[in-house]
Design goal:
Elements: H1 16-21, H2 61-73, H3 80-90, H4 109-114, H5 124-148, E1 183-185, E2 198-200, H6 201-212, E3 216-219, H7 226-237, H8 246-269, E4 282-283, E5 297-303, E6 308-314, H9 325-338, E7 349-354, H10 355-360, H11 362-369, E8 381-387, H12 396-399, E9 416-420, H13 424-441, E10 445-450, H14 468-476, H15 480-491, H16 496-519, E11 522-523, E12 538-539, E13 542-543, H17 555-565, H18 577-591, E14 594-595, H19 597-610, E15 614-619, E16 634-635, E17 643-644, E18 657-661, H20 667-679, E19 683-688, H21 699-706, H22 709-713, E20 720-724, H23 739-744, H24 757-763, E21 767-769, H25 774-786, E22 793-797, E23 809-810, E24 823-824, E25 839-843, H26 847-858, E26 864-869, E27 871-873, H27 877-886, E28 891-899, H28 905-915, E29 922-927, H29 938-952, H30 955-960
Parallel strand pairs: 4-11, 7-8, 8-10, 9-10, 15-18, 15-19, 19-20, 20-22, 21-22, 25-26, 25-28, 28-29
Antiparallel strand pairs: 1-2, 3-9, 5-6, 12-13, 14-23, 16-17, 21-27, 24-26
Helix pairs in contact: 5-6, 8-15, 8-16, 9-20, 17-18, 17-19, 19-25, 20-21, 27-28
Length: 962
């Protein structure tokens, strides 16, 4: 047996669940025949399909399997000898004793055919065993050898060896050296034979080695689809499948010259550009900027093969590795949506990963899990992992528990192609296969480029501190361009002179481009935009006016939308009884010309849809609403999966409304919706958290993309975050949307009275709103689209106010000429004699209703004024000033239900003091400082509520704070 190569790994027995996932129709058997005294590894699973044709075509492993399956269904369907054999095997007969020759079978035709391929063998049991052993050997190469014992590592030092895979030889499967020359029929689950159906064992092994033990390793046998597995086998097993023409090789060399020389010149001519300094002068546009390799790009080029334009878009990305993954997916989905690409045949995404980040960042898993969801699929993504076998200074053995960084992709049955990046032809072939896979099956695929990082983490890093042996080897490695050039020169594909001329030609191109760049004194940020919005910022060639039209609607329009919101516009559709009551209540509100929170949202959405604005609302449970208030999707109670979305029945020429429950992900889904909002300014894209504090796990998207997006990349975005917020005595987990975090990140200066109105909105990094009135919520949603620019909008939405009888708005507050109110002044009895008002309480959100209730109970309606700040950022300095001056004799109080170190107090206090020029103190009424957002004890909650309400209406309590 010494002549057998031992590149194979031990084939691990399949569990029942694994067996069910292997290709083809598969059935386990409890025992398998063995011959003589040899030991035999039991076969756990067959992969050949059952055939109904007669068993007259010679013995092969497939043939035996077919008989076995037929026997399971009907023992009489096979010859008596096979019936006896299978009965003995299933009964647990000892090795070598399952086969028995029945009387009258001495010279049957079947016996002659059974031995026709491998010579005369009286022992049919050995024949069966040998064929099954060959199939097991082939399967071993397909399952484990293809990625555990390939030459995919660019370095001889393996930093994450697969030591748990033990070598397995053909002898492991009961095959002997004498079997090498025997001819075996090939199963249908391999393509190594090409046009041949049978091969000698030694040729079978050679072809398996060529297919699976070279520079490409393929992980695919976990895929539970026979067609897909067969497709991959054909791409890698077919003899001589990876052939390159002379022209292909020369073109590949030219492309390598360009990429290699570009990076070399980048280091030589501008060594500091990686840290943010760009050649060519200053930056014309405002913004903090970012290092240049974080910036996006938008480029249109001609495809010389099809003679058609291809648009390439590189999404701007931060140093938070993999955070951009869902953003790219969302942007891709939007581009597909807007061009009607329902199958992903016109728009696709390619994600470039690092190996350590791919294995270590949970957002990779979240993004993969969006890949096949109806409202999130982009119909397949090509993932390219640049596997330099190190994470900054951390070895893979310290950075991951899995053998490969790409193992996370197995969760969605994505094939994984490992390739030695020092073999350019193998890389190109694998990339072509990946592209074909995506085009054929519209599913994700991973290309794992196994390579190394020559310079360490960056040009200034010293990797020898932590990886001395690895970098000793790297220093000895020839650059891949030089390796490939020498290979082609040796083959005669190019001459050394042609190679040197190619380098000189490209160097000249770079020199000329660099010289031209010096004449460009100003860097235009528009060159770095990944999704320009042509025509949006101008009107008839001129900049848009910095104004915002009224966001109100006509009475007729409000009634029409209200009628749709309270009906089922589909015949023979049975809805839930509870929904019937909700629709009736909506119809009653429409008759009374009032709206609650849900109906106000319906009015805003419906009106924008009628105006041609696409709306997409996603998040956990948004179709119904976490608090059962929305019900935008109706489900037929008698027909499975039959739904109705009334908002898509507003008018024949309306824009589509997309409302979709998301996976249980915040990080991934918010990133996806952010990317979707990038594609077009003429759409309202909203993400709603199930509870406001769930944005915690999406904080990276907020911190890196939403908050500083325009400052870093001069990139406007109009995404809306709906964050349910309110202290309802339900515990700390779902009470607070953490408004203090959003307010802390606002860029307005608390010590400066700014210009007002639309200009103030234009200068802010985002808009933060806590509306207490449904009518105001209606206006702010419409204003988000009618503004002449785009800013992220953060809305702290209510919970108990969704059904509060006083949280209603009249149609009069939504008619033409009305606007969003940044501050709602007190127009009650206090407006009769404002000079007699002794206390002016500023507040925001739900606490307003608790304050008004307390004021009534104390009989203070004429002496205590309550003003609601609806827009917290940008802060309404002008309106706060007007209220303070109107109640000039009043003490000023800020009241909130949140704890003092949370909520809004630290944000509003210095701004109120700037407004009044620090003429008065600003007293605080609210809960004291705390670590948790809220108490979990209902009684404690009520005690805290009573305490701060007493403080709000007790002047002496204010003075005690001094």
């Amino acid at each position: 047996m010494h002549r057998f190569r031992t590149c194979a790994a031990r084939l691990r027995p399949l569990t029942a669940s694994q067996a069910a996932q292997t290709a083809g129709q598969q059935r386990p058997i409890t025992a398998a025949p063995s011959g003589g005294a040899r030991t035999f590894q039991p076969i756990r699973c067959f992969s050949a399909p059952v055939a109904s044709e007669p068993f007259l075509n010679g013995t092969s492993s497939n043939y035996v399997e077919e008989m076995y399956f037929a026997w399971l269904e009907d023992p009489k369907s096979v010859h008596k000898s096979w019936d006896v054999f299978f009965r003995n095997a299933n009964a647990g007969a000892p090795p070598g004793s399952a086969y028995q020759s029945p009387l009258g079978l001495a010279s049957s035709l079947a016996s002659n055919q059974l031995s026709s391929l491998v010579g005369a063998q009286p022992n049919v049991e050995k024949l069966v065993e040998d064929h099954l052993a060959v199939q097991s050997l082939i399967r071993a190469y397909q399952v484990t050898h293809t990625h555990t014992h390939t030459h995919t590592h660019t370095l001889t030092l393996s930093v994450k060896p697969c030591s748990h895979f033990k070598p397995a030889t053909p002898g492991f499967y009961g095959l002997e050296e004498s079997d090498l020359e025997k001819v075996f029929r090939l199963p249908t689950t391999t393509f190594i034979g090409g046009s041949e159906s049978a091969l000698p064992l030694k040729e079978i092994i050679r072809r398996l080695e060529m297919a699976y033990c070279q520079h490409i390793g393929v992980e695919f046998m976990f895929i539970n689809d026979l067609e897909q597995c067969q497709w991959i086998r054909q791409k890698f097993e077919t003899p001589d499948v990876m052939k390159f023409t002379l022209e292909d090789k020369r073109t590949l060399l030219a492309r390598m010259v360009r990429s290699t020389r570009w990076r070399q010149r980048d280091r030589d001519t501008d060594g500091q550009t990686d840290r943010g300094e760009a050649a060519g002068g200053g930056q014309r546009d405002q913004g903090s900027g970012d290092v240049k390799y974080h910036l996006g790009m938008y480029h249109r080029r001609i495809n010389r093969v099809t003679d058609r334009n291809i648009t390439l878009s590189l999404v701007a990305n931060p140093s938070h590795l993999e955070a951009v993954d869902p953003v790219v997916q969302g942007k891709t989905k939007a581009e597909q949506f807007y061009c009607g690409d329902n199958d992903g045949k016109r728009v696709m995404s390619i994600l470039l990963h690092g190996d350590a980040a791919f294995a270590g960042q949970g957002i990779v898993y979240e993004t993969f899990h969006l890949s096949d969801l109806p409202s999130y699929t982009t119909h397949g993504t090509v993932h390219v992992v640049v596997n330099n076998q190190i994470g900054f200074t951390t070895d893979p053995r310290m950075a991951r528990s899995s053998p490969y960084p790409t193992d996370v992709a197995r969760v969605v049955n994505a094939p994984i192609f490992h390739v030695n990046a020092d073999d350019p032809e193998a890389v190109i072939y694998v990339c072509k296969v990946a592209a074909e896979w995506r085009a054929t099956f519209h599913k994700d695929v991973v290309v794992d480029l196994v390579c190394y990082r020559r310079m360490g983490h960056n040009e200034m890093d010293e990797p020898m501190f932590t990886q001395p042996l690895m970098y000793k080897q790297i220093k000895k490695q020839k650059p891949v361009l030089l390796k490939y050039a020498e290979k082609l020169i040796a083959e005669g594909a190019v001459s050394r002179q042609e190679y040197e001329e190619e380098i000189a030609k490209y160097d000249k191109i770079c020199e000329e481009a660099y010289a031209r760049s010096k004449d460009e004194k100003i860097l235009h940020i528009k060159h770095w935009l990944d999704s320009p919005w042509p025509g949006f910022f101008t009107l008839d060639g001129q900049p848009k006016s910095m104004t915002c039209a009224s966001t109100g609607l006509t009475e007729e329009n409000l009634h029409h939308i209200g009628q749709v919101a309270s009906s089922v516009p589909v015949e023979d559709f049975t809805i839930h009884g509870g929904q019937s009551r909700i629709l009736k209540a909506r119809a009653e509100m429409v008759r009374n010309r009032t709206v609650d929170w849900a109906l106000a949202e319906y009015m805003a959405f419906g009106s924008l849809l009628k105006e041609g604005i696409h709306i997409r609302l996603s998040g956990q449970d948004v179709e119904r609403g976490t608090f059962s208030h929305r019900h935008h999707v109706l489900h037929d109670q008698n027909v499975d999966k039959r739904i109705c979305i009334p908002m898509n029945h507003l008018s024949p020429d309306q824009a589509p409304y997309t409302v979709c429950n998301s996976s249980l992900s915040e990080y991934g889904v918010l990133g996806f919706e952010l990317g979707f909002a990038m594609a077009s300014p003429n759409a309202l894209i909203l993400w709603e958290a199930q509870f406001g504090d769930f944005h915690n796990t999406a904080q990276c998207i907020i911190d890196q993309f939403i908050c500083p997006g325009q400052a870093k990349w001069v990139r406007q975005n109009g995404i809306v975050l709906l964050l349910p917020h309110g202290m309802e005595g339900m515990g700390p987990e779902h009470s607070s949307a953490r408004p203090e975090r959003f307010l802390q990140m606002c860029n307005d200066d608390p010590d400066v009275m700014p210009d007002f109105a639309v200009r103030q909105l234009y200068d802010c990094n985002w808009i933060v709103v806590n509306s207490s009135c449904p009518g105001n919520y209606f206006h702010v949603l419409r204003r988000q689209i009618l503004l002449p620019f785009r800013k992220p909008l953060i809305v702290f939405t209510p919970k108990s106010l969704l059904r509060h009888p006083e949280a209603r708005a009249s149609f009069d507050q939504m008619l033409p000429g009305t606007h969003f109110q940044r501050l709602i002044p007190d127009e009650g009895p206090v407006s009769q004699r404002p000079e007699d008002v002794r206390r002016l309480i500023f507040c925001t959100g739900k606490v307003y209703y608790e304050l008004t209730k307390e004021r009534r109970s104390r009989g203070l309606d004429a002496t205590v004024a309550i003003a609601r700040i609806e827009q917290l950022s940008p802060f309404p300095f002008d309106l706060v000033k007007a209220e303070s001056e109107r109640f000039c004799n009043a003490d000023l109080v800020w009241c909130q239900e949140e704890h003092k170190n949370q909520g809004y107090y630290d944000y509003v206090k210095p701004r109120i003091r700037t407004t009044i020029q620090r003429a008065k103190p600003v007293w605080y009424a609210g809960r004291g400082p705390a670590a948790a957002p809220a108490t979990g004890n209902k009684n404690t909650h009520l005690v805290e509520l009573r305490r701060f309400l007493d403080t709000a209406f007790d002047l002496e309590a204010f003075r005690d704070q001094v």
